[in-house]
Write a structure and sequence with these properties.
Blueprint lengths: L1 E3 L5 E3 L5 E7 L4 E9 L5 E10 L6 H19 L3 E5 L7 H20 L3 E5 L1 H9 L2
Parallel strand pairs: 3-6, 6-7
Antiparallel strand pairs: 1-2, 3-4, 4-5
Helix pairs in contact: 1-2
Length: about 130
């Protein structure tokens, strides 16, 4: 990465690579993706997937599935930190509570592995990853 200063001065900075696990929590599907930012600041996808949750199963079973699968991803891909969508306002209180429980389990999965969890608004995540 080249930084340009005033008066036409510039210098090159090498940024260390960083690997981040992003989690998009949902009541039926919880998505995840691991991206790595190389020294050239471009994002490269490492892996991605979804955790499908059957609404026929009891909620504790579904939450355990999210917890276990995310811990597997963390063990396999070795992210340095986790990014998760911040809380949003929902019209349906019951859906919002279930989503909050999934978010809590996702955060627990990360923190129990010693990872920092950062919460971002959905808009800031989309613009950082996609540019719009």
């Amino acid at each position: 990465m080249v930084l340009k200063l005033s008066r036409g001065l510039s210098f090159s900075v090498t940024l260390p690579a960083m690997r981040v696990l992003g989690i998009d929590c949902g009541g039926e599907y919880t998505g995840y993706g691991v991206v790595e930012q190389g020294t050239d600041t471009k994002l490269q996808i490492v892996c991605c997937g979804t955790i499908r949750l059957s609404t026929r199963e009891p909620l504790p079973v579904r939450l355990n599935r999210v917890y276990e699968r995310l811990r597997e991803v963390i063990a396999d891909e070795h992210p340095e930190m986790v990014a998760i969508e911040d809380v949003f306002y929902a019209v349906n209180a019951k859906s919002a509570l279930k989503l909050g429980q999934v978010r809590g389990v996702a955060m627990l999965s990360a923190s129990s592995c010693g990872l920092e969890v950062a919460e971002y608004s959905p808009l800031s995540i989309k613009s950082a990853v996609c540019g719009s």
